[in-house]
UniProtKB/TrEMBL annotation:
This is Tryptophan synthase beta chain-like PALP domain-containing protein. Residues 2-65 form the Tryptophan synthase beta chain-like PALP domain. Its cofactor is pyridoxal 5'-phosphate. The keyword Hydrolase does not apply. The keyword Glycoprotein does not apply. GO terms for biological process: isoleucine biosynthetic process; L-serine catabolic process; L-threonine catabolic process. InterPro entries: Ser/Thr_Dehydratase, TrpB-like_PALP, TrpB-like_PALP_sf. It comes from marine sediment metagenome. Keywords: Lyase, Pyridoxal phosphate. Signal peptide: none annotated.
């Protein structure tokens, strides 16, 4: 997404760690059988990190792509066990 579009439409940003993103990918895989690429894990990780802020609200997450390396897949699986 280009910066001008984000500047116009995005209300806030959240900083996330690689560990939080991988954990989110593991949750998608284990609980929803969705194998998504790392960028898709960002929205899920942000929701998990700030879940209290979004409690009882309508939330839309964009989850796309499935280009996950075998190494990332194994890491995501291991974070859920």
């Amino acid at each position: 997404i280009t910066f001008p579009i984000c500047e116009q439409y995005v209300d806030e940003y959240h900083l996330l760690t690689e560990k939080e993103i991988v954990m989110a990918l593991g949750i998608l895989l284990k609980h929803h059988q969705i194998m998504a690429e790392g960028a898709a894990g960002l929205s899920v990780a942000g929701l998990i990190k700030h879940k209290d802020k979004y409690k009882d609200k309508n939330v839309v997450l964009i989850i796309c792509g499935n280009k996950m390396s075998l190494e990332l897949l194994q890491l995501a699986i291991n974070t859920q066990t």
